[in-house]
Design brief:
By secondary structure, this protein is mainly alpha-helical. It is about 95% helix and about 0% strand. The protein is built from 1 helix and no strands. The longest helix has about 70 residues. The relative contact order is 0.05.
Length: about 70
């Protein structure tokens, strides 16, 4: 009887350890995805800044040409 209980406890322990390992792997994958998203967000911000800078440059050039024509 005690032997069966020990076997059952061992099986339960192995099952729990397996589940915990699966959860750890899932959390690690999620963390990696969050890091990837943060990198992409940084790249998007950089592109937005570059686009805004170029828009401002073009606006300034157009304003300069308009003032020359007036």
């Amino acid at each position: 009887m005690q032997n069966r209980m020990k076997n059952g406890q061992g099986e339960m322990r192995a099952h729990v350890e397996s589940q915990v390992q699966g959860m750890k792997e899932h959390v690690n994958r999620c963390s990696e995805k969050v890091e990837d998203i943060q990198v992409v967000n940084g790249e998007i911000e950089e592109v937005k800044d570059n686009v805004q800078r170029k828009i401002t440059e073009v606006e300034d050039k157009v304003k300069g040409k308009i003032s020359v024509l007036e």
